[in-house]
């Protein structure tokens, strides 16, 4: 029997032993058996290579399932020696799948970054350009999650130049979308918009997978909302929601929350229930959706107390999302205005202390907001700060005769100017 046949038989037997140990929850024996498979010289034997590929994947899954992040990182690094005789495409596939196993392990982001960076350096040394590009794209994602935005931008700048040179449009769209998200996180809206425009332009020339198209619509909705164009933002979010929902992606519920927020910001709180009763949205029930329903109800009732109660009740669901949190300031301000208008509607003269008591805020805060509302002509009135009173007036009707008089004075002024110029020329 040849040595290669012996190796093939040995790896097959070791795999069987490892799987039996896994079924018996004997982690140590399973790990030992898998490691022995990886130590067998492959010598271009297809069966041995296949067994070693299986061992790498199954051992990686074993480390993930038992929350052994350090061992998984070590496996990724040592696997490069094992895969020396593998085809480049197979090596890239295995390495990517092993890195993906980190995703479900808690508190491993720094380790993911270090491991991926090490793999990038190895890919550069081995001149595996396409693997390097794929790993750098993943590294950008990790930096974004860590909020290390400038580190992400540093990689993006170089990667975009290389992708444009290679004319790899599919990866180019992904990286440009990441660039748009990163600049948005840095609050550089013009650069974020420019990056998104570039991504959409590149996407128009190729087939765009549903999730990628949903990602583009997602980002477009966010940027439209930044400009307070909630109607257009809702349209983009709806397209993104359909894309994510069709692929059963977990981001669908996040986009649904954004859709509901847009309706609230447009003073269309009644539409919230209509959306939730729709075929696609009806299956997304839970505290996340209940939180937006509570906000919509508070906004409809123009009740600041209900709004603050909803924020307190659903603190986790509402405060963790940066998009929702960033727009709540404007929503709170709008709701405060509506609440004040509702309170002062029956009065022509009212004490500011009484208004503050009715809505449960400090008198100084109420006074400042009422002053701003008068200047913005939300309503017509005068603040008597000495006595602490607010006088509310009806909206003044513009006198047509007053406009005609102003126009007459303007024309007379023009005539006098013309006569003065003629007199000066004599």
UniProtKB/TrEMBL annotation:
<dbReference type="GO" id="GO:0008541">
    <property type="term" value="C:proteasome regulatory particle, lid subcomplex"/>
</dbReference>
<keyword id="KW-0647">Proteasome</keyword>
<comment type="similarity">
    <text>Belongs to the proteasome subunit S9 family.</text>
</comment>
<feature type="domain" description="PCI">
    <location>
        <begin position="229"/>
        <end position="397"/>
    </location>
</feature>
<dbReference type="Pfam" id="PF01399">
    <property type="entry name" value="PCI"/>
</dbReference>
<dbReference type="InterPro" id="IPR040773">
    <property type="entry name" value="Rpn6_N"/>
</dbReference>
<dbReference type="InterPro" id="IPR000717">
    <property type="entry name" value="PCI_dom"/>
</dbReference>
<protein>
    <submittedName>
        <fullName>PCI-domain-containing protein</fullName>
    </submittedName>
</protein>
<dbReference type="InterPro" id="IPR050871">
    <property type="entry name" value="26S_Proteasome/COP9_Components"/>
</dbReference>
<dbReference type="Pfam" id="PF18503">
    <property type="entry name" value="RPN6_C_helix"/>
</dbReference>
<dbReference type="InterPro" id="IPR036390">
    <property type="entry name" value="WH_DNA-bd_sf"/>
</dbReference>
<dbReference type="InterPro" id="IPR040780">
    <property type="entry name" value="Rpn6_C_helix"/>
</dbReference>
<dbReference type="Pfam" id="PF18055">
    <property type="entry name" value="RPN6_N"/>
</dbReference>
